[in-house]
Write a structure and sequence with these properties.
Layout lengths: L1 E4 L25 H28 L9 H5 L6 H6 L12 H19 L3 H12 L3 E5 L17 E4 L4 E5 L6 H8 L3 H4 L16 H23 L4 H11 L3 H5 L14 H18 L3 H37 L4 H4 L10 H22 L3 H18 L20 H13 L3 H4 L2 H24 L2 H10 L3 H6 L1 E4 L1
Antiparallel strand pairs: 1-5, 2-4, 3-4
Helix pairs in contact: 1-14, 1-16, 6-8, 9-12, 11-12, 14-15, 15-16
Keywords: Membrane, Transmembrane, Transmembrane helix
Protein name: DoxX
């Protein structure tokens, strides 16, 4: 028997039929609001996806994107956590010759293996790192009576068989040593007053020959000197980090601790300044103490740029010169893979998150999950340098207190995670429609199989209109 139960869903008041739109149900959302929310989702998805794919495009270049600088400059309560991910937050290893050289040796091995260099390419690569075995210049014949001085004979020689003047690649040639070699033919080319002699006439025989040989000798010495002044990258690194510890004091004469008879190495002063800043930052309670900590931080950044900047520039130049050795086919293999340290893991997670979550938001698939995960990711960007009271203000044109653009984007993403925008416009809506259609068909088939034919006919005759079916429930007794 079929009966109608009006008590389960009471009939609405008579005046409810006159109420429409949002006034009928405050939880309903206007169409324009739906459009704006979907547009907001698309805009944020586009911004995240573009940022991610731009970073992907840099991975095959000589300067791939990395989050290392962002993590090293982190401020706020989570500062130590983010900075610790880099392994060397203050770039102290860049001032250590052995540490940088070990990094270069590892890059050398991975470069040779990844690109399968030929023997000729390996020789040119070795010349970049350690320099050539010697420096040479063409010279057909030594001038008569000229002999390399004894103090230079250990690393300067003339080979008559190859007709080359040769300088040892490990010694190079200084300006003073070049002048000593040029002085050997000075009397032939210059008079007692230092004025250059006029070239003899060609018919003067021996005088012209000696003058011509002296001129060729001078040109050969100049050429070999120019070649011998080219330092290998390891030698340039040695100069930058070890050989001339007094040189930075000329640059940093404005910094305290670099005057007087008792000099302090500039890298030691850098370490002292870092320790002073950490103590000042940890103990700062008043505005004056915070300003003092900010002043120290600015001084540290200036000192770091001038100390570490040249070494990093040298490192980047080495990388560029290494890639110049490759053929187009070798370059097609992409950049050499980097070791899996914490920075590379963070970079990979960031790029993957930006590309994946941005794309999911654009197409409206798993929209709520994607919005929530993207909100957590951007929240991490916010916490790396939050604009909170007592935290050093981030450089740039923007000024914020507690709330900045990152936090606004976080709240927008969390709001999108609370709304079914993917069902309104996106793959989620298509899947939801297909699912409901499949479930409805399955339920109708199951109901048809379970109901007797006679009961089904009675039910069809006594079924209420569509409006009544929405209000009343049908129960079987």
């Amino acid at each position: 028997m079929i009966s109608v139960n009006p008590d389960r869903h009471p009939a609405p008041p008579a005046d409810s039929a006159r109420r429409t739109g949002a006034a009928a149900d405050p939880r309903r959302i206007a169409v324009i609001a739906c459009v704006l929310l979907v547009t907001l989702r698309l805009f944020i998805g586009w911004q995240l996806a573009y940022e991610g794919f731009w970073k992907v495009a840099t991975l095959d270049t000589t300067t791939p994107w990395t989050s290392e600088g962002y993590l090293k400059n982190a401020q706020g309560p989570f500062r130590d956590l983010f900075r610790g991910m880099t392994g060397d937050p203050d770039d102290l290893t860049w001032l250590d010759y052995d540490a940088v050289n070990d990094r270069w040796n590892d890059r050398y091995r991975r470069f040779v293996t990844h690109y399968d260099l030929s023997d000729a390419q390996k020789r040119r690569l070795d010349e970049l790192f350690v320099g050539p075995a010697d420096f040479r210049a063409e010279l057909a014949e030594f001038p008569e009576g000229v002999k390399v001085p004894k103090e230079l004979a250990d690393f300067v020689e003339f080979n008559p068989q190859t007709q080359r003047i040769i300088v040892d690649g490990r010694r190079h040639l200084t300006a003073d040593e070049k002048l000593k070699l040029l002085a050997l033919v000075e009397s032939t080319l210059y008079d007692d007053t230092g004025a250059e002699r006029k070239p003899p006439e060609m018919n003067e025989g021996e005088n012209y020959t000696n003058w011509e040989l002296a001129k060729q000798y001078t040109q050969a010495i100049e050429r070999v000197y120019q070649r011998a002044t080219n330092l290998s990258y390891r030698e340039r690194l040695d100069v930058a980090t070890r050989l001339d510890p007094e040189a930075p004091r000329v640059v940093f004469s404005n910094f305290k601790g670099t005057f007087g008879d008792d000099y302090t190495p500039i890298d030691s002063y850098y370490s002292v300044l870092l320790a002073e800043y950490e103590n000042a930052r940890a103990s700062a309670e008043t505005d004056f103490e915070r300003e003092h900590a900010e002043t120290l931080y600015g001084e540290i950044q200036e000192l770091k740029r001038a100390l570490v900047g040249p070494v990093k520039s040298l490192d980047a130049q080495l990388t560029n010169d290494m890639y110049k050795l490759l053929t187009p086919e070798q370059r097609a293999k992409g950049a050499i893979p980097q070791p899996w340290d914490t920075v590379r893991i963070a970079d990979t997670l960031t790029i993957t998150g930006l590309c994946t979550l941005g794309t999911l938001l654009l197409i409206g698939f798993l929209t709520r999950f994607s919005a929530a995960m993207a909100g957590l990711m951007v929240l991490g960007f916010y916490l790396a340098w939050p604009p909170w009271p007592g935290v050093v203000e981030a450089p740039g044109p923007d000024h914020a207190l507690v709330v900045n653009k990152n936090l606004i984007e976080v709240m927008a993403l969390f709001a999108l995670a609370a709304l079914p925008t993917g069902r309104w416009f996106g793959v989620d809506g298509l899947l939801h429609g297909l699912w409901n259609r499949w479930v409805g068909r399955k339920q109708r088939v199951a109901a048809a199989k379970a109901a007797p034919p006679s009961s089904t006919a009675v039910a069809e005759k006594s079924a209420p209109p569509a409006a009544a079916r929405d209000t009343y429930s049908v129960s079987r007794s």
